[in-house]
Amino acid sequence: MKTTINQVSGHVGQEVTIGAWLGNKRSSGKIAFLQLRDGSGFIQGVVVKSDVGEDIFQKAKSLTQESSVFVTGIVKEDERSPFGYELEVKDLKVIHESVDYPITPKEHGTEFLMDHRHLWLRSNRQHAVMKIRNEIIRATYEFFNTNGFVKVDPPILTGSAPEGTSELFHTKYFDEDAYLSQSGQLYMEAAAMALGKVFSFGPTFRAEKSKTRRHLIEFWMIEPEMAFYEFEDNLVVQEEYVSFIVQSVLKNCRLELTRLGRDTSVLETIKAPFPRVHYDDAIKFLHEKGFTDIKWGDDLGAPHETAIAESYDKPVFITHYPTAIKPFYMQPDPEREDVVLCADLIAPEGYGEIIGGSERIHDLDLLKQRLDQHQLDPEAYKWYTELRQYGSVPHSGFGLGLERTVAWLSGVEHVRESIPFPRLLNRLYP
Known about the structure:
BirA Bifunctional Protein, domain 2, 18 strands, nucleic acid binding, ATP-binding, aa-tRNA-synth_II/BPL/LPL
């Protein structure tokens, strides 16, 4: 009976055949231990010479790393294994012999591993990170579908930019200028006016020349937008969504978290509601902590965000940033025009901002005024202003960066491990 490693729990005591690759092996004169993987999981195959005979035992002993095989054996429960099962091998057929596999069990430098990312993905660690990424995506669809959102796909090629064009990739769209999207938000606002509550999930691009562990050139964003939702409503959706994906990862990726050595106790506490810190109070707090370089009106950098986050065991909202440092579309606080109704959600443990969101301007005259202040072409945004001309309503939305969230939940240090093929400032290969 053919099966996969993640299904062997249903075949204890039965003989099964699994198509797999050899990750590693060790052997003595009478027994060989094969570390096998098939994409769905990892299992140890035990080959006993007296059970299989000389030919199969020698075949097992001579297997090279990453050779592909069909392994037939009896599924046994094994309390010593983190997976809980092992395979008592009865037969072994080599599909393809791998020669001189470059990523050996020894230590390799980061650049070497990045050059071989197409193969590095096969490792236990990278497999675990990708499974956690997949679970976050699965849970995202479950959360929004369950809560009445409609998935809408905004364009990747755009003629304008929600936050200016300084960090966008420019291209020619026949005889027009175009840009790779840095956010689908503006289009999602249009979709929300048609469908009420919507979300998108897709790639975004930022030509920011940054080399920090938190930045990628190409990354994936989940961007919900909601008609008739005001600022506080927006924060509630964010904290409920983040709580849901964290608990889903804890429930469905326990083995992967263990393999990564992740301290799950710090994730167990991630449940709504989350604390809120006004930007004014954040600046005061930072001054008290010795960050004398920052003044009111400055944007917060990574060290500032980390210092604030360290005071909490949950993600924390920093709200009401100065109007002058935020994009044109954010709704001013009705009681203070110098700040806007926005919030960044900062993850614990130094992982930084994972969500940026705000209530959007819904007054036509104010939006035109803000476009003028930001020196943006009103013709390019004509369709966007028309959303305020025909049945405008209060509305809000946010964007969650998938890779930073994956890095946080996985406990990996750098976002380059949280996406299958990272695009970094100096990396377009493989």
